[in-house]
C-alpha cells in the first residue's frame, strides 16, 4: 500500500469525556496531532464506555490492571487514509511521524539523549504504565515510561479533581483503581503537603533537563520534540485538575520553567 505524503481524509481521535467536554487526558497525542497538522476530529467517550468502544473498533488493550484484567483506555486514532487504528499515545506519535514525516511543523523525534530516570514505586491505584519499546525511538520510549512513572507517583494531587462527566464515570474509576469510594482519591492536609514537596523535588530533576539549552523553552531550545510533549501532556493535565491556587504555585516552581513549557506548547493545544 502506498503511504500518502499528507492525509486527505479526516482522522478520528477518541478521547475521554469530561464535564464539560474538555481535554484533560490524553494530551500527548493531541499535541502531536496538532504539531503534525493532520486533519482530525474528536469523539468523546464516557469512561464506562471505553472498553465497549475499543473492542468495537477491534483495538486490543495495551496494558493490564493489577488483577490481570485488560486495561481499556484511550486514546485511539483511526486513520481512514491508511485503514490504520492505533491505541496508545506513544504509538500514535510514532505512527504520525513515520506515516506523515513531511507534514506539519517538523520531526517529532529529532535525535537527542534524554537523561532522566524515575524508579520509585507507584501507589496501588495508579494507572498501569506503558512499557518502553526497543529499537527505533527507544530513547524517547524509555523517557516516556520514566516521566509517566514520575507523574503517576504524584497523581494523587490531581485524581480527586478529575472533571468526570457522570457518577457512572466516577464509579468506573473507583472500580479500576480498586478502591472503595471516590473519597479514597482525596489527599488532604499534611499528606498533601508531603506529596507536593516530593512533586517539587521530582520536577526539579526534569527542570534540569529543560534547562540544558538556555534558549528554551524546550529541551532542544527553540526546537520542539515529542519529549517536550511527554512532559507537557502532564502539565496540561495538571492545568485541568489542580485547584487554581495550587496550579499557580506549582507552575511557578523552578523559576517558572514549566510555565514557559506550557506556554510554548499553547500553539499546538487546540481542542478540535
TrEMBL record:
<dbReference type="InterPro" id="IPR036249">
    <property type="entry name" value="Thioredoxin-like_sf"/>
</dbReference>
<dbReference type="Pfam" id="PF22041">
    <property type="entry name" value="GST_C_7"/>
</dbReference>
<dbReference type="InterPro" id="IPR004045">
    <property type="entry name" value="Glutathione_S-Trfase_N"/>
</dbReference>
<dbReference type="InterPro" id="IPR036282">
    <property type="entry name" value="Glutathione-S-Trfase_C_sf"/>
</dbReference>
<protein>
    <recommendedName>
        <fullName>GST N-terminal domain-containing protein</fullName>
    </recommendedName>
</protein>
<feature type="domain" description="GST N-terminal">
    <location>
        <begin position="13"/>
        <end position="104"/>
    </location>
</feature>
<dbReference type="InterPro" id="IPR054416">
    <property type="entry name" value="GST_UstS-like_C"/>
</dbReference>
<dbReference type="Pfam" id="PF13409">
    <property type="entry name" value="GST_N_2"/>
</dbReference>
Amino acid at each position: 500500500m502506498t503511504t500518502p505524503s499528507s492525509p486527505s481524509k479526516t482522522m478520528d481521535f477518541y478521547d475521554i469525556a469530561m464535564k464539560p467536554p474538555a481535554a484533560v487526558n490524553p494530551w500527548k497525542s493531541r499535541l502531536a496531532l496538532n504539531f503534525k497538522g493532520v486533519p482530525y476530529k474528536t469523539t468523546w467517550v464516557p469512561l464506562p464506555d471505553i472498553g465497549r468502544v475499543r473492542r468495537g473498533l477491534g483495538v486490543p488493550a495495551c496494558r493490564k490492571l493489577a488483577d490481570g484484567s485488560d486495561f481499556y483506555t484511550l486514546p485511539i486514532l483511526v486513520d481512514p487514509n491508511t485503514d490504520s487504528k492505533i491505541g496508545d499515545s506513544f504509538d500514535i506519535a510514532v505512527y504520525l511521524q513515520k506515516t506523515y514525516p513531511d507534514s506539519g511543523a517538523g520531526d517529532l523525534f529529532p535525535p537527542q539523549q534524554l537523561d532522566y530516570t524515575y524508579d520509585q514505586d507507584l501507589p496501588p491505584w495508579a494507572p498501569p504504565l506503558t512499557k518502553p519499546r526497543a529499537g527505533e525511538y527507544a530513547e524517547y520510549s524509555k523517557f516516556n515510561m520514566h516521566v509517566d512513572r514520575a507523574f503517576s507517583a504524584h497523581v494523587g494531587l490531581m485524581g480527586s479533581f478529575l472533571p468526570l462527566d457522570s457518577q457512572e464515570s466516577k464509579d468506573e474509576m473507583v472500580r479500576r483503581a480498586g478502591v472503595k469510594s471516590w473519597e479514597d482519591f482525596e489527599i488532604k492536609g499534611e499528606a498533601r503537603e508531603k506529596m507536593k514537596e516530593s512533586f517539587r523535588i521530582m520536577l526539579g530533576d526534569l527542570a534540569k533537563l529543560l534547562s540544558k539549552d538556555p534558549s528554551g523553552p524546550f529541551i532542544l531550545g527553540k526546537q520542539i520534540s515529542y519529549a517536550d510533549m511527554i512532559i507537557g501532556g502532564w502539565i496540561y493535565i495538571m492545568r485541568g485538575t489542580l485547584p487554581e491556587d495550587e496550579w499557580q504555585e506549582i507552575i511557578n516552581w523552578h523559576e517558572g520553567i514549566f510555565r514557559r513549557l506550557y506556554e510554548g506548547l499553547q500553539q499546538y493545544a487546540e481542542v478540535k
